[in-house]
Amino acid sequence: MAATAVTAAIAGIVALSGFHQQLREIDPPGFDSASEVAGNDRVGIRTFTPPEGIVVDADLEYGVREDGTLLTLDVCHPATPVTAVSTAADLGDTGTGPAVPAEAGAATDVAPSLPAVVSIHGGSWQRGDKANTDWRNVCRWLASEGFVAVSVDYRLVPDAIFPSAIDDVALAVEWLREPEQFERFGIDPARIGAFGGSAGGNLAALLGTSGEGALDEGSRVAAVVELSGPVGLGADELAADGASVWLRSIIAAYLGCEPGVDDEQCPQAADASPATHADESDPPVFIGHAEDEIVPLGQSQRLADELRSAGVPVEFAVVPGGEHSIGILDEALRVRVAAFLHEHLG
Q1: Are 22 and 68 in contact, with CB atoms under 8 Å apart?
Q2: InterPro entries from the xrefs (predicted)?
Q3: pLDDT digits over 201-243, tens only?
Q4: CA distance 83 to 70
């Protein structure tokens, strides 16, 4: 979607070689940046203990914005070295059976290419970090399941409002599809999914419904997992769900609208709501939500209904309690999410 325009903007900056732009990192960076999982209780993803052998390549640059913002991501992957990559592009894979080298004499020491999952942190679109303790654990968990996990940072409110964040995560997917990256990490560019929680859940779902057609091109993804996302950002939807003043205020700040205005005065609310863009070409979506948490359950229920009406396969899990986002990602839900991702990404 908007990532194409952003890519063009970046190219324009590079072309202006006579100008020396000062780069700046997204603030706040680092492991101590707050998680959207409140408190210190051992819940959700905090019940996961990473195994040995997970490699983390941190702070890789995936883009520079026109304002000089440096965009970075972390890649978590198994330690197994990749000596050659068996993607359909370089092997004679018809999609009907095991890939076979297209030419005689091709490398025989070939590691199978791996599916990738882009991990998108939460934090009300205004805080959070890919490397805080909880989201680093998500990254390692996905890697332990056999995925190349790609945990991204994106621009935050108030420095950037919609559509900056979705443009950034879309650019990260495009970056992953560069030959250099899938050769470097052993990624199959046809099998990229998205995982997000809270505000990151909104972005993951929006990434999944943006665009049309093939799921292996541009910024399209082949599967989506979103947990506790505020996904219906229109005033009428928020009113119907009994959304709190707090939730309405952070959504207004993200959209760049005055709190309390109607949808005619804030048309970007529809653009930032995933169901607005849904069609039958979109990937399967897993939605997880707690019964009684800070984002009303009605948000996820409505998204599930709207996606199904558009012809999108949906798995919807409602869990007891009031934990939020990756705070609900306990062992039982991790099993379900991993099974969903393996089913649709391989």
Answers
A1: yes
A2: AB_hydrolase_fold, BD-FAE-like_dom, GDXG_lipolytic_enzyme
A3: 999 999 999 999 999 999 999 999 999 999 999 999 999 999 9
A4: 30
- The partner residues of 69 in beta bridges, in order of sequence, read 24
Cα dihedral 289, 76, 186, 331 sign: negative
Amino acid at 64: V
What letter represents residue 258's amino acid?
A: E
- pTM: predicted TM-score of the whole model, two decimal places: 0.86
**Tens digits of per-residue pLDDT, 313-340?**
999 999 999 999 999 999 999 999 999 9
Q: Name the fold adopted by 3-85+109-345.
A: Rossmann fold (3.40.50)
**Domain segments of the chain as ranges:** 3-85+109-345
The neighbour count for residue 74, using CB atoms within 10 Å, is: 21
DSSP 8-state symbol, 26? -
CB 198 within 8 Å of CB 247: no
113, 114, 115, 120: CA torsion to nearest 10: -130
Radius of gyration of the chain measured on its C-alpha atoms: 20
pLDDT, position 26: 80
